[in-house]
Amino acid sequence: TNLPIFKLKESCVRRRYSDFEWLKNELERDSKIVVPPLPGKALKRQLPFRGDEGIFEESFIEERRQGLEQFINKIAGHPLAQNERCLHMFLQEEAIDRNYVPGKHRKQLNLSLGPGGQRLTKIFEHSRYNQKKSKSSHSTDALSTL
């Protein structure tokens, strides 16, 4: 990868389908992004049927590989997902530590916006604060009119 947030430019890891399911679940639980779907499980292909090789059929394996590659490319290219520790672990560490403490990866991009140099996260935090403040002032106004 040429993305500066990842510590390794190249890495090679082996992952099972269940590892992709784990990553998807972790991202859905800990981040505020919409996670794309994984390619479907092949429940009907688990057992060979009349010459069909089931899940070992080359075309099935290639279709699944392409689907998983599309999934990981979408996730790895998402600016918010890039900060998630689970994604870094999934892409760059040999073994997945399923007991890790979820959170953001400490290395952050310097995304400056405008002359003030505010970081993107600060802007999001500020906008969330203003939304909460705005909702509470609307509630107070509604109570005042009663």
Structure description:
It comes from Balaenoptera physalus. Pfam families: PX. Belongs to the sorting nexin family. This is PX domain-containing protein. This protein has helices spanning 17-30, 58-76, 85-92, 120-145, and strands at 112-113, 118-119. The chain is mainly α and 146 residues long. It has 2 domains: 1-109, 2-Layer Sandwich (PX Domain), CATH 3.30.1520.10; 111-146. A two-stranded antiparallel ribbon has the order 1-2. Residues 106-132 have low confidence and may be disordered.
Number of spatially distinct domains: 2
**Structural class by secondary-structure content:** mainly alpha
- The CATH homology group name of the largest domain: Phox-like domain
Low-confidence stretches: 106-132
In whole angstroms, how far apart are the ends? 59 Å
**Sheet having the most strands:** 2 strands, antiparallel
CATH architecture of the largest domain: 2-Layer Sandwich
Any idea what the shape is?
globular
Question: How do the strands of the widest beta sheet line up side by side?
Answer: 1-2
Care to count the β-strands? 2
The helix/strand series, from N terminus to C terminus, equals HHHEEH
Which fold name is given in CATH as the topology of the largest domain?
PX Domain
CATH domain class name of the largest domain: Alpha Beta
The chain-level mean pLDDT equals 70
The share of residues in extended strands comes to under 5%
Q: What level of helicity do the residues show? A: 40-55%
Family: Belongs to the sorting nexin family.
GO molecular function: phosphatidylinositol-3-phosphate binding
GO biological process, one term: protein transport
InterPro entries: PX_dom (IPR001683), PX_dom_sf (IPR036871), Sorting_Nexin (IPR051074)
